[in-house]
Specification:
Length: 161
């Protein structure tokens, strides 16, 4: 699949998630709850995309969002990574968030996104792994993308959307 097709797939998979309007729609609590609200509440996907500069600052905050916030804002960073595959810092944090933990489970707020979103993450991560390979990126970054692709692809195999 080409980049445009995958971006369309991402948009379709996450279309049903509405912008969080209230603190309770976005903040799941925790140490970065205030930062989540400061950096995301009331912002459209377009505003978040225009802000740029993901790095660890905004990426780490997905761990402290409710599923509605993750479902609404995750597509922005996925598309960003397609356009900025060389952003190692953002990939370290995003890959760490998307990757299953040692117990084989993903973050609770990712779990709640559903099959269609998980399928999109799998396809996206597979594309990203291939792109990182073409760019002669760090082996660990490539393996992380491959691992994420395999996890989400396997968990959605045979499931209906």
């Amino acid at each position: 699949m080409n980049q445009t097709h995958i971006q369309t797939m991402i948009e379709d998979a996450f279309r049903g998630f509405q912008m969080p309007q209230h603190e309770g729609d976005l903040d799941a609590g925790g140490i970065d709850g205030e930062e989540v609200l400061k950096n995301y509440l009331g912002l459209t996907r377009e505003q978040v995309a225009a802000r740029g500069g993901w790095g660890h600052l905004y990426t780490e905050e997905f761990s402290y969002m409710k599923p509605q916030g993750v479902g609404y804002y995750l597509p922005v960073i996925m598309v960003y990574m397609m356009e900025h595959c060389d952003d190692d810092v953002t990939w370290i944090y995003l890959g760490g968030y998307l990757r299953p933990r040692e117990n084989g489970k993903i973050w609770w707020n990712l779990e709640a996104l559903g099959v269609k979103a998980h399928q999109a993450v799998g396809v996206w991560a597979e594309w990203l792994a291939q792109r990182l390979l073409e760019l002669d990126a760090d082996v660990e970054a490539i393996q992380n993308a491959e691992s994420i692709a395999a996890y989400y692809t396997n968990r959605t195999r045979g499931l209906s959307q």
